[in-house]
Amino acid sequence: MVLLRGSATAMQKPECELEKNGVVAGLKTKMANGIERSAVQNGAVNGIMANGDTVHQINGLRNGSTTVCNGDMNGHLKIQTEAKKPDATATTQRTLASKFEETFEETPLHIALITYFGFLVLILVGYIKEHLWRWGILKKPGSKESSKLNDFVPLFSDFVNFFGRNIYMRGRDCGHIPVAGVPGAQFDIMEYSTPDYNWTLNLTGNIKRSVNLGSYNYLGFAENSGPRSAQVEVATKTYGSGICSPRRELGNLSIHTELDRLVTRFTGKEDAVTFAMGFATNALNMPSLIGKGCLVVSDKLNHASIVLGTRLSGAVVRIFEHNDMESLEKVLRNAIVDGQPRSHRPWKKILIVVEGIYSMEGSIVRLPEVVALKKKYKCYLYLDEAHSIGAMGHSGRGIVEYFGVNIDDIDVMMGTFSKSFGACGGYLAGSKDLIARIRSKSHSAAYGAPMAPPVVQQVLASMRTIMGEDGTSIGVNRISRLAWNTQYFRYRLREMGFIFYGNQDSPVVPLLIYVPAKVPAFSRMCRKRGLGIVVCVFPATPLVESRARICLSANHTKEMLDKALEIISEVGDLLNCKLSKLPKPVPREWNDQPPLEEE
Amino acid sequence: MNDNMESVLPLLTPEPWSFGELFEAFRQAPMYHLIFEGLLIIFIIRLLLSKSYSIQSKMVLTEKEKDQLIEEWTPEPLVPKLPDDYEPIKYRTVTQQGGSMLTVDGKQGINLGTFNFLGMLGRKETADAAVKSLKKYGVGTCGPRGFYGTMDVHLDFEERIAKFFGMEMGILYSYGFSTVASCIPAYSKRGDIIFCDEGVCFAVQMGLLASRSQIKFFKHNDMEDLERLLEEQVIEDKKNPKKAKKTRKFMVVEGLYTNTGQITPINKLVEFKYKYKVRIFLDESMSFGVLGKTGHGVTEHFGIDVTDIDLISACMENSLGTLGGFCVGSKYVVDHQRLSGLGYCFSASLPPMLASAAMAALDIMEDDPTMASRLQARSEHVHEELAKIAEMKVAGDPVAPIKHLYVRETGDKTRQEIMKLLELIVNMAMDEGVVLTTACYLEEEEAFLPPPSIRVAVNIAPTEDQLAMSLQVIQKVASEVLQNEV
Fold first, then answer.
1. Which of A44, A116, A150, B274 is the most exposed place for a label (fewest CB within 10 A)?
2. Distance (Å, whole) CA B6 – CA B298
3. Strands across the sheet with B402-407, in order?
4. CA A366, A372, A374, A376 torsion: positive or negative?
């Protein structure tokens, strides 16, 4: 079935090409910021694809099924390159990068087969084990439901149980790894031991100092000493550590108002409002913007909070392929032409929802093109900058600054404080009317607690540092270090021959492992050598594309990165993970990493 | 000619066929012929059964027509344009909090407005624990629990809170609202049935909505109505036992209802649980630390075994005086949320310093187990005093610290007008040194909108004198405002 679907896609290709070329040409002229798709590069190594497949193809190729079906199995890669015209604002924004380059190398066929086979074995063994447990030949480990509830309908479906017991359980020690201290550039990982193949995990009490490539500490503001920490201490002593009332009743401290104003200035929008949890910012505020009769056009890989928010709002959702502008345009056109389902009434409004950096792919949204489409089809744009705010753009203003897009073109700007700012919570920024409406309609302002005082203070302090309002240049220094680290790390990984995804400027680097059995092994071997790394498998990723995810931080020194790279390289050799067919990058000289400015 | 006719005629007029001959013909016919006829018969049956063939209703539009349609479409603005005289919602600004006093909009007063029931917010112990934790862990964890966002403090707290409740396992969320809103859809899926009280707070309603299950509301705290629904379900199940075998059923209730101040009769619910095979999810956000002799919640209040409750959720913004939320239950039940609780898996974990503060609050609760009974005694006293206001009706269980004050005689006043009166009472009380608040609801979003009220939250921080003074103020101000109005 999968095969059939794949070949159908391949057959339709020429048509798509035609249509897309028309569309893209139309877009090209409309882009205001000088980004133009001047070179569409076909990076196929073996040159089988002669029809000039461009980037939208990448998405098709990545879901594993097409890998098998395209007919060319030599693992070629398609790179799409966008050269930038020199532009006054743009050149300052991207000092290191001059191109918008995203790579999603294709899964090698033999690896795909091994991966499928791996899952097959897992499922078969699991199936046999389930039966042995059922017949009482093996003793079933793990917790059981209370005997009082025997005649109740089982709480979990068989599939959920099966997945948990037979697949997740094997790598259970690779998630929820406890850390004993601040998650800075290096952190203390607590060791687990297990007497019964992960069914029970016991902390051994041993602690291993490791390089931290797992936390979203992009600018290194996860810190337990220094001036910001001192401010937090004062705030805790002044206001206490919590708030016992919703913001609309008696929970609005003066520092909350101060933070709202600071975020307004930081984002450059007319007004902003903050919330205590990033997840809840999306999930509980989207319903105040959209409702029945509205359409949400959402990227396929959008975060769970966005999915939940749209579900709670009652709006209709249509999905477009990840970062695929042609797919987005098609969805928009069809939606407007067809109107609402059944009644065919026109939509009240259409909201496009995209993220700045996709944390599982390391890709960056094609914002200028999204904005162009948004204008063409009179939609509204909701940009979730959870990972990109602080980390992207020359002054940390996020993806909008990175592309030099006009801030007025983004209707709703959302971001979180749990990544670059080393705190937790989220914000929404937009026009005065929009924020006024959210203030009066927001679920979390009416019923949930606002941010805790120490957390507010942490955001105030780190945001001021990024903006340079604390009188230092630490913010700019950290942003430039992060950019340097990103370039360096990605270059070295390419040199080593790993397959990894994403934009060359993205500090999130997903490194492909593919085979399910290698995933926990990768994590364990790295931890053993002193490197903390995140690994994810299905359902967080597509079935074949199990991966390790690396998040870089401004606080990583070159020595730490080199140590981490050495470990990754060693483990990669042991597990045969260096599968890239791309040519080695051109050797280059590395300037010194910008030195870390001390307080 | 005639002869010819006669010789041909017998050939043309068919002789009546006997059954035997029919069978014979059938037997002799070649196989391909039979198959062909069989196919024909199937085709005819299909023709008969299929609806009249549809005329293609979908007209294919040309690109030009599409462009025109797109051109013509005018969307509504993202948010409605606000009228020029619109007054944006202004939050009151608090400049000092914790302890018995609260400074709101520059005026200091005795706090009877926030849910700081046990006065944990403002205790030196909790703040010190938070600061100590800050010096080790910093503020944020920079990751969800699964991805290096688990600190040892989180694990300690989970163990601690489970032990406090006498359950097997606890799970920590980073936000109170999202706790109950995530744990319901983690278990109850499309096709399952939830029996829910009409008085549940908004967070629970969001959980119900996210679960996409079938929701059956019973009247607030009305066990007869619940039993009626359960009985109906039994009849329904008998009709379709196959479906019933796969349909999970839950009762979702709050221990102490934020919206009404009533206590749920949990003993009755446990009875129903085993009688009708319906699991119980209990939200103890308001009752935890408040009800029961030692503050173990509504189960202690009724003296039932806590393990009869399948899942207890609570937020830490009330009795514990910090932020976040947790669930406790058996290991089998709770562990499931580590992969399925949306707010757990996809959100950065709780700042460790807040977990430490909560742990310090638990220490205080365990060191001084009389806190809850003191609070209940005080609540009863406040209830008596508030009941003396002739113009207002006090709602809520006498021992519960949440009291809703409704206007008794509303006449033909609109909700807005009543709200204005209540706001006036709140403002005047604030001038006299008592901080109150009206209960805030999203009027259009609530499933069952409660009537407008002033929500008094009794707490143990103020001294007896302070409390007596503030009750006098409330009585005086309420009478002043409402006497002239009603």
1. A150
2. 105
3. B392-395, B402-407, B454-457
4. negative
* CA dist B63 → A23, A330, B425 (Å): 12, 12, 63
The answer to whether B243 faces chain A, any CB pair under 8 Å, is: no
A297 in B contact zone (CB under 8 Å): no
The rounded distance, in Å, linking the Cα atoms of A384 and A402 is: 15
Residue A338 near chain B (CB below 8 Å) = no
CA-nearest of B257, B322, B110, B173 to A244 is B322
- Specify the amino acid at residue A470: D
| DSSP character string of B337-371 | HHHH-HHHHTSBPPPHHHHHHHHHHHHHHHH-TTH
Q: Give the position of tokens 């949204």.
A: A365
Rounded Cα distance between B397 and A377, Å, is 56
Q: Quickly tell me which residue has 């609540």 as its tokens.
A: B379
Long-range interactions of A157-162: CB distance < 8 A, separation 24+? A157/B189, A160/B336, A160/B340, A162/A126, A162/A130
Residue A354 phi, psi dihedral angles, 5° rounding = -135, 160
Identify the three-state secondary structure at position B144: strand
Cross-chain residue pair A446–B440, CB shorter than 8 Å: yes
CA A122 to chain CA centroid, nearest Å: 28
Residue A331: partners with Cβ closer than 8 Å, 6 or more residues away: A297, A318, A319, A320
Are A447 and B201 within 8 A, CB to CB? yes
Flag whether residue B78 sits within 8 Å of chain A, measured between CB atoms.
yes
**Among candidates A247, A289, A348 on the partner chain, residue whose Cβ is nearest the Cβ of B91:** A247
User: What b/e string do you get for A311-329 counting C-beta neighbours within 10 Å, with b at 16 or more?
Assistant: bbbebbbeebbbbbbbbbb
Give, in order, the Cα–Cα distances in Å from A391 to each of A214, A228, A484, A507, B290: 16, 19, 12, 8, 44
A27-30, Cβ contacts within 8 angstroms, sequence gap of 24 or more = A27/A325, A27/A369, A27/A372, A27/A373, A30/A372, A30/A375, A30/A376
- Quote the CA–CA distance of A52 and A21 in Å, as a whole number: 11
- Interface size between A and B, measured as CB pairs under 8 A: 372
Contact A493, A565 (CB under 8 A): yes
Are residues B332 and A222, on separate chains, in Cβ contact within 8 Å?
A: no
Which residue, A432, A419, A363, is CA-closest to A391? A419
> Taking Cα atoms as reference points, which of A135, A466, A310, A533 lies closest to residue B209?
A310
Q: For residue A586, what are the contacts with CB-CB under 8 A and spacing of at least 6?
A: none
pLDDT in tens, chain A (599 residues): 333 333 333 333 333 333 444 343 333 333 334 333 333 333 333 333 333 333 333 333 343 333 333 333 333 444 444 433 334 333 334 433 446 788 888 889 999 999 999 999 999 999 999 899 888 888 888 888 888 888 888 888 777 788 888 888 888 889 889 999 999 999 999 998 988 888 888 999 899 999 999 999 999 999 998 999 999 999 999 999 999 999 999 999 999 999 999 999 999 999 999 999 999 999 989 999 999 999 999 999 999 999 999 988 999 999 999 999 999 999 999 999 989 988 889 999 999 999 999 999 999 999 999 999 999 999 999 999 999 999 999 899 999 999 999 999 999 999 999 999 999 999 999 999 999 989 988 888 899 999 999 999 999 999 999 999 988 899 999 999 999 999 999 999 999 999 999 999 999 999 999 999 999 999 999 999 999 999 998 888 888 899 999 999 999 999 999 999 999 999 999 999 999 988 888 888 888 888 888 77
Q: Say how far apart CA B192 and CA B212 lie, in whole Å.
A: 8
Number of C-beta neighbours around residue B161 at 10 A: 26
DSSP run (H or E) holding A352: strand A350-355
Q: In what order do the strands lie in the sheet with A99-103?
A: A79-83, A99-103, A502-503
DSSP states along B216-266:
EEE-TT-HHHHHHHHHHHHHHHHH-HHHHTT--EEEEEESB-TTT-PBP-H
